[in-house]
Amino acid sequence: MTTVIEVMINGQPRHFAAAVSLTGLLAELDLLGKRVAIERNGEIVPRSQFDALTIASGDSFEIVVAVGGG
């Protein structure tokens, strides 16, 4: 039986076939290399933990991409 991981990202449901790290999540969303802030279940995740933390079913993420300008 295949386990599907269901998470919310910026208010939209997303499904993954396997657990991925936050770095893997950013790759899936084509956001690698961009300046982002990630909030997981209401708490800001330090960039230093992006490789170590994996998504879990029921997680809720807010991902904000920094936009430069002036």
TrEMBL record:
It holds the Pfam family ThiS. Gene3D superfamilies: 3.10.20.30. InterPro entries: Beta-grasp_dom_sf, Mopterin_synth/thiamin_S_b, Thi_S, ThiS/MoaD-like. This is Sulfur carrier protein. It comes from Chitinivorax tropicus.
